[in-house]
Amino acid sequence: MIKQPAALAAGLRLRNQMEIPVPPSPPRKDYIQYQHNDACSLSRWTAKESYQFMYARPWEKVNDFYSDMVNGCRSLSELFGKETYAVHDGAEIVQDCDKSELISVPAPDRKGRWARVTFKIVLSYHGSSFDGWQKQPGLNTVQGLIERSLGKFVDEKKAQLLKEKKLPIDACSVVAGRTDKGVTALGQVCSFYTWRKDVKVREIEDAINGAAPGQTRVISVSQVSRNFHPNFSAKWRHYFYIFPFNDDDKTNECKTPFLDNDVCQDGQFGGENGGNVLHDDDQNEPEIGMKPISFEVSRVNQLLHQLEGKLLSYRIFARDTKASRNIGPPTECFVFHARAAEAYLPCPKSGTSMRTMCIELVANRFLRKMVRVLVATAIREAAAGADEDALLKLMDATCRRATAPPAPPDGLCLCNVGYTEFDRKNCLLP
């Protein structure tokens, strides 16, 4: 083998590198940072301050109230002194501590590949008792509980297939919308199917209710057409958020809490419901005086009311979604109803009531953490004294740092999923 001189070898390598075409670098993504240059820009909370304000609340009282609701002993209507009722698919459900009724019509009998039976399940569950809806290994999720409970109704062919693969015999469920950890549901809708014809509605209800008493409760079970899909067939989602005031809060205002080292460390907020990393440029904030420490519930209502009948962009109000959603035309949802009002939460343990702000949102769909981002941002803008159209102006941005961090999941509740045209009469807040 003939060795080439080092200089010659280096020259050949350099020539080869020059002949190889270098791929062009990908174009840089220019995110539009919303400039808060209005009159209240210096009064607006930073992400860290907003997070502190939202989490320093007596959320345990809200959790207790939601737990009583899941067990059928409380109702959201009690907050406003109204009659207790809810609507599913146009059929009224009378809810009290003893019973819940649903009038439904079973799907017609079919043959061949349409012979499988599909069941629609409306259930409630306490958010703090689970690690969210979606089934995940090693976590206590609502989907995992439901599918294990319904495993006894799986047909023989599927059960044998699961045994051969050494998998647990669980049913397969589809849900109207996956809720985050800590979010309660009062009218979540899911479905599952089986080729067994001997499955009774009562058996499904007993199987789920017996899996986690006090944490889940079946409102209704009905047989529906195979065409039914809990998610794609839904026309609107109804969410409710309860924001509690502290005992020392004055009327129509709340004080900003101090920063606790246990709450924030190195820019990452911990806790059971935390874990969100906030990229906050607090060090770049100008030196200013004390920021406003109060907000009016009526102002929050004015900000949210501007969203009604509007298309709301996902790319600014939905957190933790793919960056590709910031490119191209925005994906939007239509807001049917958005209101806020003051209410008093009953506290049976102390025999008193607690002043709260209730926010009601209805839209055709929401993305992950979208409702919580809307709640926190509306409160932040109300405290800063922003204009009524502040939430609409935020849609001009693509950087999600323009909005506030998501509000705690403890106050959020999925009230209902609708499969008929939206009727404003079903809302609690006029």
Report the CATH architecture of the largest domain.
Answer: 2-Layer Sandwich
Low-pLDDT runs? 28-33, 83-107, 251-289
CATH topology of the largest domain: Alpha-Beta Plaits
Give the CATH level 1 class of the largest domain.
Alpha Beta
Average pLDDT value? 77
Order of helices and strands: HHHEEEHHEEHEEEEEHEHEEHHE
Structural class: alpha+beta
Largest sheet: 9 strands, mixed
User: Tally the helices: what do you get?
Assistant: 10
Q: How far is it from the N-terminal to the C-terminal residue, by CA? A: 90 Å
State the CATH superfamily name of the largest domain.
Pseudouridine synthase I, catalytic domain, C-terminal subdomain
**Count of folded domains:** 2
Strand content: 15-25%
The tally of strands reads 14
| Helix coverage percent | 10-25%
Shape: globular
Instruction: Round the Cα radius of gyration to an integer and report it.
Output: 26 Å
